[in-house]
């Protein structure tokens, strides 16, 4: 069940947990809050989460926030996720 997956997740972060939030729920309708939530609920290190949230534009459109959520949900290293967010936010 969820407990077993949670215990395994501590040792193998790529194993899915029983989280109710899914990055796929926001595509097409994503907002700033959805992007922040995706970052905060991700497996990124705390310092990377803070950096990522700092880089977010507050006036982005739905496509921008969907792209951010997709990057955060990807299997890239945290540093690459932050770099993608930085690149998307500069455009």
- In angstroms, what separates the terminal alpha carbons? 43 Å
Alpha-beta classification = mainly alpha
Q: Report the mean per-residue pLDDT as an integer.
A: 80
Number of strands: 0
H-E order? HHHHH
Range of strand content: under 5%
Largest sheet: none
What count of helical segments does DSSP give? 5
Q: Uncertain runs with pLDDT below 50, 5 residues or more?
A: 1-24
- Helical amount among residues, as a percent range? 55-70%
Please give the oligomerization state of what you see.
Answer: single chain
Tell me, briefly, the overall form: globular
Rg, Cα atoms, Å: 13 Å
How would you describe this structure in keywords?
mainly alpha
Task: Give a verbal description of the structure.
- The chain has five helices and no strands.
- With 91 residues, the protein is mainly alpha-helical.
Task: Detail the topology: elements first, then pairings.
Elements: H1 2-11, H2 32-40, H3 46-55, H4 62-73, H5 78-90
Helix pairs in contact: 2-3, 2-4, 3-5, 4-5
Short summary of the structure?
The protein has 5 helices and no strands. The N and C termini lie far apart (43 Å). By secondary structure, it is mainly α.
């Amino acid at each position: 069940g969820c407990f077993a997956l949670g215990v395994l997740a501590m040792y193998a972060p790529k194993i899915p947990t029983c989280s109710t939030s899914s990055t796929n729920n926001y595509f097409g309708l994503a907002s700033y809050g959805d992007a922040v939530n995706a970052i905060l609920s991700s497996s990124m290190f705390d310092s990377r989460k803070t950096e990522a949230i700092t880089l977010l534009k507050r006036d982005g459109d739905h496509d921008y926030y969907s792209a951010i959520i997709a990057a955060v949900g990807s299997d890239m290293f945290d540093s690459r996720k932050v770099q993608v967010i930085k690149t998307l936010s500069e455009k």
